[in-house]
Specification:
- The complex is a heterodimer of chains A (264) and B (317).
- Chain A has 264 residues and is mainly alpha-helical.
- Helices cover 77% and strands 0% of the residues of chain A.
- The radius of gyration of chain A is 19 Å and the shape is globular.
- Chain B has two domains: 2-225, P-loop containing nucleotide triphosphate hydrolases (Rossmann fold, 3-Layer(aba) Sandwich); 229-295, Alpha-Beta Plaits (2-Layer Sandwich), CATH 3.30.70.260.
- Chain B contains twelve helices and 14 strands.
- In chain B, the strands form three sheets. Chain B has a six-stranded mixed β-sheet with strand order 6-7-8-3-9-10, sandwiched between helices. A four-stranded antiparallel β-sheet of chain B has the order 2-1-4-5. In chain B, strands 12-13-11-14 form a four-stranded antiparallel β-sheet, covered by helices on one side.
- In chain B, a hairpin with a 4-residue loop joins strand 1 and strand 2 (18-29).
- The longest helix of chain B is centred in the middle third of the chain and has 16 residues, at 169-184.
- The chains are: A mainly alpha (264), B alpha/beta (317).
Chain lengths: 264, 317
């Protein structure tokens, strides 16, 4: 057990070393969300009326936080697919290390990367007028919540990477799923403007429940389009936790099994 | 003592449609080098993957250093080194980073890992490029680093799966020297290759495999003897092929092989056969472009064992 933990941490350290050796990756993975903050704040911010004290940016930031965390799963998946293709996974599997180390180490590394990106984004948000009104503890717990969501999602990335085995394909596939998921939600615009059927989809979308939960934790009243009295829009925190557990219950065993059988 | 034993291994893919291994058995004596020789798709990699605990066979048994690879894979992993067809190292990291990381994964501890990494870099002439990302390495350097990574803990048994495939002649030569050095150190080595010359150079014993089966095994010399002694080889103008073949057929005891304009056939006593051939050709007024005796190569071995050339099978696969 002790070895399993140190082995995982060595894999995590490998990922950090990669970032240190190729800093461009880190730079671009932070520039993109910061760019989104600026674009949405200044391009759409003016034309979306929200009635929110402090303006659109208060509603926008939780949305962008969730989106960014969701997008990192593509990097998880493509990184793992690349390792598979290069034969690195085989090498790890031929070492006397815990079988779980490689995947667990990777999910931990992704979480660390998420921490960094979230800090940079919070700074960018602050610079363009984002001011959470809740207590420090509540704001902090929102970030913990975001990291937990990111951690759960990285397991879907692990599974996708092991299943697809081609870095570029899996990156495109992940993007094809996460992109509409983040937009078909309450993250950037009120769901009330959507066709009725889509509203339901949007309200049950885990991205929406996460965004709504974060907004709550940042101290917002305005839920940005929670019109239906649906359960997720009334209990975003509970629903989000349920989703995270569901994702992990499904994808952790699937990923571990896939990893163990990855050469059969 | 046998360090590696594989008994009746069977492995199929796609629900039995593709038979990668078809009752394959082999063994390696401790401290010796066995080369598994065969074309692409013969089952070389599958064999190595099973022995290195990466793959489970459908049936059959295998053990490494006396330990069952199927029942006790974790134990086996502590005793083996594996270097595959591709350089399985992290390309974004430096050579030093990689070796230290693998050292830590072998639980060597930080200081020992660094020490070991530096020793190995030195030994494989990689010290100068130790701090550069692997991406910038040449093919030969990558393979050497990959090999170094499989030697972090002195493995009892080393598996090298096509260690020189894709390397240029110089890289191949360097790799051979490194492997020969290792062998002198007494490691038990199972090496797969599609290059007959490589098997000839490095191995004590050769197992020729084709379609997932061992079709012949023995020392390089024994295998060559199996094909027959020397061969008479004559190259002539197109117009003379038929006549020359007939002459060679008279001199040789067995079948004549014609490849473009080169006619060849095994002969019993080389020097006598050569003189007979010259006389007969002269009488027939045929002027050979080239004539000579050839000691059988492993190419010939493969050809006579499988009925096709190693390269032909590769092209089909």
């Amino acid at each position: 057990m002790k070895n399993a933990i140190t082995d995982s941490l060595i894999i995590t350290k490998r990922q950090l070393l990669q970032l240190a050796r190729v800093p461009e990756v880190l730079i671009f993975s932070t520039i993109q969300p910061v760019m989104f903050v600026l674009l949405f704040r200044f391009v759409f911010g003016g034309s979306i009326s929200t009635g929110q004290p402090g303006g659109y940016v208060q509603l926008l930031m939780p949305g962008i936080f969730v989106q960014t965390v969701a997008f990192t799963l593509a990097a998880t998946a493509s990184g793992l697919a690349e390792d598979m293709k290069k034969g690195l996974i085989d090498r790890f599997r031929s070492l006397p290390i815990a079988r779980s180390a490689l995947v667990v180490g990777r999910t931990l590394g992704d979480s660390l990367l998420n921490i960094l990106v979230l800090i940079v984004m919070a700074g960018a948000g602050y610079a363009v007028g984002w001011r959470p009104t809740a207590s420090v503890l509540s704001v902090f717990s929102a970030f913990v919540f975001l990291l937990m969501f990111g951690y759960a999602l990285s397991w879907t990335g692990i599974y996708a990477g092991l299943a697809v085995r081609d870095a570029r394909t899996v990156q495109n596939v992940s993007f094809l799923i996460t992109f509409p998921m983040t937009f078909l939600s309450n993250a950037f615009a009120p769901t009330t403007g959507m066709p009725k059927a889509l509203q339901y989809v949007a309200e049950w979308n885990p991205v929406s429940t996460m965004v709504a939960a974060c907004r709550q934790l940042f101290g917002l009243e305005n839920q940005f389009g929670a019109t239906a009295n649906s359960f997720p829009s009334q209990h975003p925190l509970t629903t989000s936790i349920f989703y995270m557990i569901l994702i992990m219950v499904i994808f952790i065993p699937l990923s571990v099994r896939k990893y163990k059988n990855s050469s059969n | 003592m046998k360090s590696v034993i594989a008994e009746h291994l069977v492995k199929t893919y796609r629900k039995g449609e593709v038979k990668a291994l078809d009752d394959l058995s082999l063994d390696v004596e401790e401290g010796t080098v066995l080369s598994v020789l065969g074309p692409n798709g013969a089952g070389k990699t599958t064999t190595v993957r099973i022995l290195a605990t990466l793959l489970k066979p459908d049936s059959g048994n295998a053990s490494v250093a006396g330990i069952d690879v199927i029942k006790n894979p974790d134990k086996v992993r502590e005793l083996i080194g594996l270097s595959g067809q591709y350089a399985a190292v992290d390309e974004t990291l430096t050579g030093w980073d990689n070796l230290v990381m693998f050292g830590r994964l072998y639980h060597l501890g930080k200081t020992a890992s660094i020490k070991r990494a530096e020793d190995l870099l030195e030994r494989f002439s990689l010290t100068e490029s130790a701090r550069r990302p692997i991406k910038t390495y040449s093919g030969g350097m990558r393979r050497r680093l990959d090999l170094a990574a499989s030697l972090i803990v002195q493995p009892r048994v080393l598996f090298l799966d096509e260690p020189t495939t894709g390397l240029d002649p110089r890289g191949r030569q360097e790799m051979w020297e490194v492997i020969q050095e290792l062998v002198k150190g007494g490691v038990t080595l199972l090496l797969t290759t599609q290059y007959l010359e490589e098997a000839d150079q490095l191995a004590d014993e050769i197992a020729v495999i084709d379609h997932g089966k061992v079709i012949a095994r023995g020392t390089s010399d024994a295998l060559k003897k199996q094909v027959g002694g020397e061969r008479l080889e004559i190259t002539v103008e197109n117009a003379d092929i038929a006549k020359a073949s007939e002459i060679v057929g008279r001199i040789s005891a067995s079948a004549v092989h014609v490849d473009i304009r080169t006619i060849s056939a095994p002969v019993l006593t080389g020097s006598v056969a050569l003189m007979d051939a010259l006389r007969a050709l002269d009488e027939a007024k045929i002027h050979p472009l080239d004539i000579g005796l050839k000691r059988p190569s492993l190419d010939d071995v493969f050809l006579s064992l499988t009925g096709h050339k190693a390269e032909e099978a590769e092209a089909k696969a």
